[in-house]
Write a structure and sequence with these properties.
Blueprint (H helix, E strand, L loop, with lengths): L2 E2 H7 L5 H9 L3 E3 L2 E2 L5 E2 L6 E3 L2 E2 L7 E6 L26 E3 L7 E7 L2 H8 L7 E7 L5 H9 L1 E3 L2 E3 L2 E6 L2 E6 L6 H8 L4 E9 L2 E2 L7 E3 L2 H7 L2
Parallel strand pairs: 9-15
Antiparallel strand pairs: 1-4, 2-3, 2-5, 5-6, 7-9, 7-17, 8-9, 10-14, 10-15, 11-12, 13-14, 15-16
Helix pairs in contact: 1-2
């Protein structure tokens, strides 16, 4: 069945759909020996698709849960000392779904399925992400209320659900995936996040030890794709 070529490239795990569109616009993508334009379609089971003379092959989809340790970077770049990809030594190309900063630990998904990654990260699907947050001091009730009602940051108003374990240890659930969003939210209220760990994405809860990984079950993948 024919699909837009940028979707085929993303589903093969070569790059994101947006990056695939850039390759097409820059005339670096060929289908059956012909340079294509944005919007063109192909059949991944029949047509030969190349980017910069590299063939795009249809891969069996892979879905992985990793418990990210501190000091590992969520990047595809080989020019870093510690990358999360070093923790999952597979021969098939995979990529991280979304981001966690270098000092944040916890649940990170990896895949070679572009549609799956888009379903998890795109704001319109509103996938909840839950974090354990430790602060440098006890939080005030008024600040919890403000978080739940919404805090105005430079890139928009951010709301979150808050559950208190101790006054300096919280569970925070949020839809947003913006860079450093949890840390920026608390910093705006005068708190410094001393420990941050993602514990859930949707209904999927982290259940492997730090630095370890496992494949997701078919049921878990289906639940995340809803």
């Amino acid at each position: 069945m024919e699909e837009r070529v940028q979707k085929i490239i993303a589903n093969a795990g070569y790059c994101s759909r947006r990056k695939a569109e850039e390759y097409i616009e820059n005339r670096k993508v060929m289908v059956n020996g012909k340079i294509i334009k944005l919007g063109d379609k192909a059949d991944p089971d029949k047509d030969e698709i190349y980017i910069n003379n590299t063939i795009i092959e249809k891969n069996k989809p892979i879905y992985i849960m990793l418990n990210k340790p501190k000091h590992y970077e969520v990047t595809l770049s080989p020019n870093v000392e510690k990358s999360v990809l070093q923790l999952v030594p597979l021969s098939v190309r995979i990529f991280p779904v979304g981001r966690l900063d270098k000092n944040t630990t916890g649940l990170l998904l990896l895949t070679n399925d572009g549609d799956f990654a888009n379903k998890i990260t795109h704001p319109r699907y509103e996938k909840e992400k839950t974090y354990f947050v430790k602060l440098d001091k006890r939080i005030e009730d008024r600040d919890i209320k403000q978080i739940e009602e919404g805090i105005h940051l430079l890139d928009g108003k951010i709301k979150a659900k808050v559950k208190i374990y101790h006054r300096d240890q919280l569970e925070v659930t949020i839809h947003e995936g913006k860079k450093w969003i949890i840390k920026r939210m608390f910093f705006k209220l005068g708190y410094y996040v001393t420990e941050l760990s993602r514990t859930k994405i949707g209904n999927l809860r982290m259940n492997v030890k730090i630095g370890k990984w496992r494949f997701l079950t078919n049921k878990e993948v289906a639940e995340l794709m809803k």
